[in-house]
Amino acid sequence: MEINIFQLNNYKLGSIGFTSRELENLKIDFVEEKLLSNDYNGDNPTNKIVYLKVLFDKESKKILGCQIANEKNIEARLNAIKSIIEKGGDLKDLVKYKVNPTDNEWNPDILNILALTALGKNQENSEDVEANNIENLVKNKEFLLDVREEYEYQEGHVKGAVNLPLREILSQKDSLPKDKDIYVYCRSGHRSADAVNFLKSLGFEKVHNIEGGFIDISFNEYHKDKGNLENSVVTNYNFD
């Protein structure tokens, strides 16, 4: 099985296995899971953007192909997918696969996160919550989880919210309550939606995405507070 890589400006574009068009032509029932995120492996995020798309069989969850665009780390990730495809592996195999073979310990890679997110989507959907309900959630002392990076959290967050970046959920999952509802937010609602699916795949059943994220929360609270943060449920507003 051949890995294809070519350069486009500062980015490397790579693929392994089938593409979406090839699977459609073969009339194979497949699912594609996409992720656009800051790149990371382990606990070290970067400001570099990585785009991932993994294709898998809808019923068996066997990996069928993958496309990646990134400035680096592309070869190791494509080799990981190649190894799993050649062994007939599925999403569960990808969850625990050590992408960087030189690591002494297994560090969660963005590929592992993507696989967990895809598995979580096969479970029952939890009800999303609108951002304008945030005051009731704070008043009722619900468990609020902020999955943004720490620097984003420090620039403004919901008072009482726990900060746990998406990339750290796997290693810190035991710190989260399974007997309570968990309300998750990020900047705009995309990372938190991934986090909800991620948590469901880890056995958390009472998880909810706060639609619109902290941007919507900030807009709603700014109009309610008239710009007065003293009595607000947020430490600062963020509209970016």
Describe this structure in words.
The protein has 240 residues and is an alpha/beta fold. It folds into 2 domains: 3-120, Enolase-like, domain 1 (2-Layer Sandwich), CATH 3.30.390.30; 129-225, Rhodanese-like domain (Oxidized Rhodanese, domain 1, 3-Layer(aba) Sandwich). The chain has 9 helices and 10 strands. The strands form 2 sheets. The protein has a 5-stranded antiparallel beta sheet. Strands 6-10-9-7-8 form a 5-stranded parallel beta sheet. The longest helix has 13 residues, at 74-86. It is elongated, with a radius of gyration of 19 Å. The model has no long low-confidence stretch (mean pLDDT 88).
Please specify the SSE layout and strand pairing.
Elements: E1 3-8, E2 11-17, H1 20-25, E3 30-41, E4 44-57, E5 63-70, H2 74-86, H3 91-95, H4 110-120, E6 129-130, H5 134-139, E7 143-146, H6 150-155, E8 162-163, H7 169-172, E9 182-185, H8 190-201, E10 207-211, H9 213-225
Parallel strand pairs: 6-10, 7-8, 7-9, 9-10
Antiparallel strand pairs: 1-2, 2-5, 3-4, 4-5
Helix pairs in contact: 4-8
